[in-house]
Automatic annotation (TrEMBL):
<dbReference type="GO" id="GO:0006893">
    <property type="term" value="P:Golgi to plasma membrane transport"/>
</dbReference>
<comment type="function">
    <text>Component of the exocyst complex involved in the docking of exocytic vesicles with fusion sites on the plasma membrane during regulated or polarized secretion. Involved in polarized cell growth and organ morphogenesis. During cytokinesis, involved in cell plate initiation, cell plate maturation and formation of new primary cell wall.</text>
</comment>
<keyword id="KW-0175">Coiled coil</keyword>
<feature type="domain" description="Exocyst complex subunit EXOC6/Sec15 C-terminal">
    <location>
        <begin position="385"/>
        <end position="738"/>
    </location>
</feature>
<dbReference type="GO" id="GO:0006886">
    <property type="term" value="P:intracellular protein transport"/>
</dbReference>
<dbReference type="GO" id="GO:0016020">
    <property type="term" value="C:membrane"/>
</dbReference>
<dbReference type="InterPro" id="IPR042045">
    <property type="entry name" value="EXOC6/Sec15_C_dom1"/>
</dbReference>
<dbReference type="InterPro" id="IPR042044">
    <property type="entry name" value="EXOC6PINT-1/Sec15/Tip20_C_dom2"/>
</dbReference>
<comment type="similarity">
    <text>Belongs to the SEC15 family.</text>
</comment>
<protein>
    <recommendedName>
        <fullName>Exocyst complex component</fullName>
    </recommendedName>
</protein>
<dbReference type="GO" id="GO:0000145">
    <property type="term" value="C:exocyst"/>
</dbReference>
<dbReference type="GO" id="GO:0090522">
    <property type="term" value="P:vesicle tethering involved in exocytosis"/>
</dbReference>
<keyword id="KW-0268">Exocytosis</keyword>
<feature type="domain" description="Exocyst complex component EXOC6/Sec15 N-terminal">
    <location>
        <begin position="53"/>
        <end position="136"/>
    </location>
</feature>
<dbReference type="InterPro" id="IPR046361">
    <property type="entry name" value="EXOC6/Sec15_C"/>
</dbReference>
<dbReference type="GO" id="GO:0009860">
    <property type="term" value="P:pollen tube growth"/>
</dbReference>
<dbReference type="GO" id="GO:0009846">
    <property type="term" value="P:pollen germination"/>
</dbReference>
């Protein structure tokens, strides 16, 4: 058994090695890294096994290669033989092509020689044609040269006298003939150049327009670069070097050869001065014809051909001045230009005075600025044209503002002044984002109810168009820095048109509370757009935004809109008070002499709560918290005042305790609503000293006083300051006179009454009596009348507020009243005496009981 043990274990080892060989072969076949396997073999101390496996794998691959080679050996031999045959065929084809090429070259050599001769003949023919043409053109020049030579050299040496006389006689005739022919050609040129002048001018003005467009694009790139540099982003594509070599003379091609020829021949003939005068007179006549305006066609349609014709004329004259020697002088060109500029300015002033459409003025102005730029490039002084445009600046903007006024008036007339409902995203982009009216950067869910009405984005579109039109008119020809001018007219539009139209809607329009509230909200939104419009104007005028955002650099319209908001709120409060008065009119339906009270509030109170709830909720949607606070304070204060006024009304002769209890219930309902709405609306975050509930304090204190068991405590300064500080003496006196709780019956003293009611009645009677004795206005008049010198400074009636009345002290006896510290001023009655302290600014009123 021991001898066979190793033989039993070998298959297992071989299987393991076989498995390792398969794994190794797979790794090598997949191109995997064998480094980890080699490292593992050396670390485990068995590299021989790995080497053995690699050798086995190499032997297997060698065997596979040998078998493959044996299998395809014959195919390899056949392929090599075929390749050798292809090489032999290629050499044969190459030699064949070489022979054919040589044969073709031999045949084509003669044809090539013939072709070269033909091209040379064509060149000779072209040169001969040009020479003949040149000879024809220069015939008069050679004739003049020959005549000159005959006169100077040959006529004197002529032996035959008769022939000499004939020649002398014919020379002037020939010169006149030559002059006549040259003048004929020159006259043809005059006709041609006048007809071509318009095209020349249009082409030159088109070049000026293209140059302007390039300048605008360059400025746009500069603005973009400046804006990106502010945020630290600089793009390489924003900076580029444009090199454009434009030869104006090569672009504006027109032939002056007839002029040069005529000038030279006339000079040779000795008629130089005559030709100069002839040229100037004819060109002046043509200019006068060009300066005539046809009345059969509107100036808007004829102004471009008119100005293009003049531009072409002076471009030609500038070329003649520079290239034709002494044919024209600078003074003559200046005279022509003065004639033209005077006529053009007169025409422009006349047409501008008759034009009443901004678009027509803008079209004419734009073309005139191009004309000015074109003529300036050719050396002419075009400043008078620019001055005409500047003088019409105010008229243009007045017309533009007038058009905007009409558009805004129509927009406001068609607006229902309800919140704008936006249903689609493109509408949101067009009406909100384009004017930066969004309240947040996130796109809201649709439909979106905006805090403004439809007239706001429509008005913003008009203002934006106004800015663009204003910049378009002031650009290219006006002042270099015209931002201040645009700002001035923008302020004028915003204040005198938009703001005035809104105020007119508020003061003269037949609008309700919700509409007035929406107008106030619209004004607040338009106030916020002032900065956006100013930035737009700055961008169009190429003014850095940092200059616009400086303090005190904004539009004056912003402060005007702020003031208009206050006017809108005032008008809104008047409308709200009017609506409240309609509901408060139901106070007249209250039974003021009811014997029985109820716990339910009166009808008007419920209607007031409903109206106020709707008012506050609507205001929260479109107005700021500050505005909501003002509206709530004003409405509740008006309600409280109206309740007090109801007690003071002359129509109310008497009221009972039950009526006061009913009014108390009404005030309680209003107080509950005021407190709840003040907290729920977020107004508590404003940290105001006065809440909605505080607005009802006067009516609440008056009701509390009338329901008090001891109303005479009102005369106690401490209690009054604490519980009745909002009440006025005179009002309390008038109200208390009407308060008669006990029924007036015959022999009322015999009826049995409630002791508690009797005590309240006695206290109320005491209050009435004490208030009746305290006559503030009469007392003040008497003091000033009898002792005017007792006061070193005026004392207002506030010095006689009830808080200065105190209970009689122990020193009210007559002997103490004449003491050094206090002296009597005037005794009104037996129950009231006025004392003055030694300090004249302290006045003490002492009540002396009988």
């Amino acid at each position: 058994m021991m001898l066979h043990a190793p033989s039993k274990r070998r298959p297992a080892i071989e299987n393991v090695e076989g498995g390792v060989d398969v794994v190794l072969a797979t790794s090598i076949g997949n191109g995997e890294d064998l480094g980890p396997a080699v490292r593992h073999a050396f670390e485990s101390g068995k590299p021989e096994t790995l080497v053995h496996q690699l050798r086995n794998f190499a032997k297997k691959k060698e065997i596979e290669i040998e078998e493959l080679c044996k299998l395809h050996y014959e195919d390899f031999i056949v392929a090599v033989d075929e390749l050798r045959g292809v090489l032999v065929d290629a050499d044969e084809l190459k030699s064949l092509l070489s022979n054919e090429n040589l044969r073709l070259q031999g045949v084509a050599t003669g044809s090539l020689l013939n072709l070269e001769e033909l091209l040379e003949l064509y060149s000779i023919k072209k040169n001969v044609s040009e020479a003949m043409k040149t000879l024809k053109v220069r015939t008069f020049y050679h004739a003049v040269k020959i005549l000159d030579l005959i006169e100077k050299d040959y006529i004197q040496n002529t032996p035959l006298r008769a022939f000499k006389k004939v020649i002398e006689k014919q020379i002037p005739t020939l010169k006149k003939h030559i002059e006549k022919k040259v003048c004929s050609e020159f006259n043809d040129w005059l006709v041609h150049i006048r007809s071509a002048a318009r095209e020349i001018g249009q082409l030159a003005i088109g070049q000026a327009s293209a140059a302007r467009q390039r300048e605008e694009e360059k400025r746009s790139r500069q603005r973009e670069a400046i804006e990106q540099s502010r945020f630290g982003v600089v793009g390489d594509s924003l900076y580029s070097l444009d090199i454009e070599l434009i030869d104006d003379d090569s672009v504006l091609e027109f032939d002056l050869t007839p002029v040069y020829r005529a000038h030279h021949i006339h000079t040779c003939l000795g008629f130089k001065a005559k030709f100069h005068e002839y040229y100037y007179k004819n060109r002046l006549m043509q200019l006068n014809l060009d300066l005539q305006i046809s009345s059969a066609q509107a100036f808007l349609e004829s102004h471009q051909p008119f100005f293009a014709q003049i531009a072409g004329f002076f471009i030609v004259e500038n070329r003649v001045l520079r290239t034709a020697g002494e044919l024209l002088s600078e003074s003559q060109v200046e005279t022509l230009w003065e004639t033209a500029i005077g006529k053009m300015t007169a025409v422009l002033e006349n047409q501008f005075s008759r034009t009443d459409t901004t678009s027509h003025l803008l079209l004419i102005k734009d073309f005139v600025t191009l004309l000015s730029a074109t003529l300036s490039r050719h050396g002419y002084r075009a400043a008078p044209l620019i001055q005409v445009l500047n003088s019409s600046r105010d008229k243009y903007h007045d017309l533009l503002i007038s058009e905007c006024r009409k558009q805004i008036r129509d927009i406001l007339a068609s607006d229902d002044f309800e919140q704008m409902v936006i249903k689609k995203e493109y509408e949101y982009n067009m009406n909100v984002l384009s004017f930066q009216l969004q309240s947040s950067d996130t796109v809201p869910a649709f439909p979106y109810v905006a805090p403004f009405s439809s007239s706001v984005p429509d008005s913003c579109r008009i203002v934006r168009s106004f800015i663009e039109d204003s910049v378009s008119y002031l650009s290219y020809g006006g002042p270099i820095n015209f931002y201040d001018v645009v700002k001035k007219y923008l302020d004028k539009l915003m204040i005198e048109v938009l703001n005035a139209a809104l105020l007119s809607m508020i003061h003269t329009g037949n609008i309700g509370v919700s509409q007035a509230m929406q107008i106030a909200a619209n004004i607040a939104v338009l106030e916020c757009t002032c900065d956006m419009f100013l930035c737009q104007a700055a961008r169009l005028c190429s003014v850095p935004l940092r200059l616009v955002k400086r303090p005190n650099a904004g539009l004056a319209a912003k402060a005007v809109f702020k003031a208009s908001q206050n006017a809108a709120y005032t008008a809104l409060m008047h409308l709200i008070d009017s609506k409240l008065d309609d509901h408060l009119a139901l106070l007249n339906n209250i039974n003021w002499i009811a014997d029985d009270s109820t716990e339910n509030p009166n009808e008007y109170a419920n209607e007031l709560v409903v109206f106020l709830d709707n008012l506050i909720s609507t205001a929260q949607q479109i107005l700021s918290l500050e505005a909501v606070y003002k509206i709530g304070i004003g409405a509740l204060s008006h309600i409280s005042d109206s309740i007090v006024v109801a007690f003071l009304s002359d129509n109310l002769k008497r009221f009972t305790l039950s009526a006061v209890v009913g009014i108390g219930n009404d005030v309680r309902v209003l107080e509950s609503f005021a407190e709840e709405s003040f907290q729920n609306s977020g107004l508590i975050d404003l940290n105001k000293d006065r809440s909605f509930k505080d607005c009802l304090i006067e009516s609440r204190q008056l009701v509390n006083l009338l329901l008090s068991n001891q109303p005479e405590n009102f005369m106690n300064p401490v209690i009054r300051e604490k519980n009745y500080g909002a009440l006025d003496y005179k009002k309390v006196a008038n109200v208390c006179e009407k308060f008669k709780d006990a029924p007036d019956r015959l022999f009322g003293s015999l009826s049995r009454g409630n002791a508690k009611q009797d005590a309240r009645k006695k206290s109320m009677d005491m209050l009435k009596r004490r208030l009746k004795d305290f006559k503030l206005p009469k007392l003040w008049k008497l003091i000033l009348r009898f002792h005017p010198r007792s006061f070193k400074r005026p004392i207002s009636s506030s010095a006689f507020m009830p808080t200065t009345i105190i209970n009689p002290p122990s020193w009210h006896r007559p002997r103490l009243a004449m003491s050094k510290t206090r002296r009597p001023i005037f005794q009104i009655s037996a129950s009231l005496t006025i004392y003055m302290s030694d300090h004249v600014d302290q006045l003490l009123l002492v009540t002396v009981s009988l």
